[in-house]
Amino acid sequence: MGNEMRIAEDNPPLLSALDRPNSYIGRSVPRPNIKRLAQGRGQYVSDVMLPRMAHVAFVRSPHAHANIKKIETAAAKKSPGVIAVVTGAELAKVITPWVGVLTHLKGLKSAPQYAMAVDRACWQGEAVCAVVARTRAEAEDACELVEVDYEPLPAVTDMETALEPATPVIQPSLGDNLCFERKLDVGEVDKAFAESDAIVETTFIFGRHTGVTNEARSIVADWNPGDERMTVYQGTQAPHMMQNLFAKHLGLAEHQVRVITKDVGGSFGIKVHCYADEMATVALSKLLKRPVKFIADRIESFVTDIHARDHRIKAKIGVKNDGTIMAFEIDDLTGIGPYSMYPRTSGIEANQIVGLVGGSYKCPNYRAQARVVFQNKNVMCQYRAVGHPIATAVTEALVEMAAAKIGMDPLEIRRRNLVPDDGYPCAAPSGLKFEQLSHHESLAHLDAMMNYAGLRAEQKKLREKGIYRGIGFASFIEVTNPSAAFYGVGGAKITSQDGATVKLDAQGSIIVQSGVTEQGQGAESVLAQVVASSFGVSIDRVRVITGDTDNTPYGGGTWASRAAGIGGEAAWQAGKALRGNVLAVAASILQAKPGDLDIRNGVVVDAASGTERLPLEELARIAYFRPDTLPAGIQPELIATRHYVPRQWPFAFTNGVQASYLEVDVDTGFVKLLKHWCVEDCGTVINPQLVDEQIRGGIVQGIGGALFEHCRYDERGQLLNGNMADYLVPMAAEMPDIEIGHVVTPTADSELGAKGAGEAGTAGAPGCVMNAINDALRPLGAKPLTDMPFTPDKILRALGKV
Amino acid sequence: MSERLIDITLTVNGDSISERVEARKTLVDFLRDDLALTGTHIGCEHGFCGACTVRLNGEIVRGCLMLAVQCDGANVETIEGLSDSGELADLQSAFEQRNALQCGFCTPGVLATAQDLLKSVRQSGVPSREKIREHLSGNYCRCTGYHAIVDAIEAVAKQRAGGA
Question: N or C: chain A end with fewer CB closer than 10 Å?
Fold first, then answer.
């Protein structure tokens, strides 16, 4: 099947392969779980209360790097309500340490990390001692009474000097502070630069920021020594992955561990990792033989939730006067804290950046270097859109700076260099393979949607009045629907396949059990839509169950924008399989051929005429309660399971383009966002509203990184702004309205044709905003801003006003 | 110890409640831990995110910045009460139709804040999108990007202003 591309309408017409009667594919139906959440009747892990449940609070290192000489716990143990005080050394007897490496990231190394520091704390905020008490307040009271004798050590905080011989080595067993390194040199880079008419060379800084999920990381672990099972209620994106890790490090079999994930108050990649304090909580439950609850408070979140995006990138582009991009070159340096995060590692973001820079363009000459170094700061790892916001910002800023240098319109330079829409399949210089993208169609759609020419005219007129507005763009590509190429090949027990079980209940309704998880993005709605369509019932008769390792097929969960494309395809296939099973039973009852029947709107019908033959309620009644009336040899199987993993393409790349329109107050340095646009191509759009809202939310998250969010550390490794008063996040008043458009290029890898949509907004927004700010300030001769976040102070400095 | 515990009597969602609480206990901890009203959420515990927004004597307050003992004699309304009374029904419906919530963690607080803005919409008129955004400026939502929330509130404002 070829890839047919077209602009999506507000209500996209049904795609032929999916054109089942009463199809829900392409319809904005409300999410089945939304009513509960709107009434405050969700169940988040922080709401879970169990009999005999105790609460843990952690004593955390105030030093970025220190030996732990002694921990005095006697006073804490006598504090009211205290059940146990457990040091890192004591807990190490219950749970084994881990090492965050993947074999396909060659050379990546890390040191063993314990659930709590044993001899040495390596970042400010690392837990060194746990206090378990009847209430969290009593546990915190007793934490105050734990006396830890620290011997402060020099803190390695500057990534620029982390590899110098004079810098202490954080993990002596590793020999140096280098976690991972990758180099790439494709085409004839030096020759291409020599032949360029114009060269732009600059350094980009991306400030560390973090996810700030509204619900902090939360876990309740419940070890039952009677049945020797650990039940863990956890706000996680990957229940089966966590089941494996809890079992592995507690010395249990996987079937002894059940992970339950109900409602999760925001994830964004923050909740797809193995956190030391969560491992400690599970170990404490095993040790104390009772449920133990840990909810990170906001301060703990800032010093222990993974950070991301701390990159310094020296970058260079060469262009001809006709706009032809000749070469890209980058040198990325990133600091990831004292350990590579487990089990996904902290090498992935840099690896992605190397792979993605320049990937939208025809340019064949590309040189890249990335070095990932250890520091005594909080751990850093994968967060929404992993590497994409950085790769996109670097590429797109270089392209717009080059365009400005040769006097070319920023859309025109893209038209001349983006891979043509009929140029697929093809590969990026880094080797990433693209099935079919739609850069030009997307650009044309955006141009019209935003009335680019009109905005340029308005901008020009306002400049004459001393009002400085900017228009910035970012074309982007985005990795979605990952195959085993991401983690499985590197030895991690992170499955890329996913499964769905679909069954007909005794009243003819449908239950779907899926291995993907709901984080609020609408996965359960997508699964219900897909199964209702492929099986043939109205969506109100479909109930979806996710987030329970005892009751769902083995699956990867939600990350890398995989839930709809992979989990959705498995559910689509399972729905079809169950339809086949049901029609076999119906055919035997009706003395018809299964192929002559179909299921439409909950009724078995003649496929050709649509004449109703048998309601599903009646079929279920016969199959479950009067199987004696069925012909001999007919055994109804009213349940079907299917699994799916992409096989033809390692990733289903999506693409799109964003635009930002903003105004810079040149006296105060404040940026006012006026409007934002995104045209995105995620293949088949299952639920247009959910896709649009993923993109809008993602864009605002990207804007946060561009304008506000920054984990600021001092040279001693102390986080200076670990609270929501000092760490700024995007709020309603500062955010613009966001207009979304679609181009639809289904992937031929699956029948559904859906690619991921969850991260595209975040991928493009920071670069787009950067370009708009620099466009606004260009007539004032300001040095281009390349150091995110773009605070008023930095803008005034660029203008030479402070 | 005894001075740490204080008896309070208050009305919560129409029910008269008498409890002995620790003097240091916040209103949101009291609602969640003592009354099991878990619809009021804890996001930051320092008055920034608005996830714990509840209505106290008709005004919206931060549940994390009030102590339970300060609420002695007060009338407290949480998302559970505001849902069951039907007061938020049109807002909730608009949020559901517009997908103005994703993870839903901020939603109880956002709805209370939206209702605070719209309670007098028939007198004050339909607020502009800027005004809606400004009124929501103390409610952090990481999922939606706010656009859908503004859409939903704007739609309800128009319905209420123009409706019966």
Answer: N
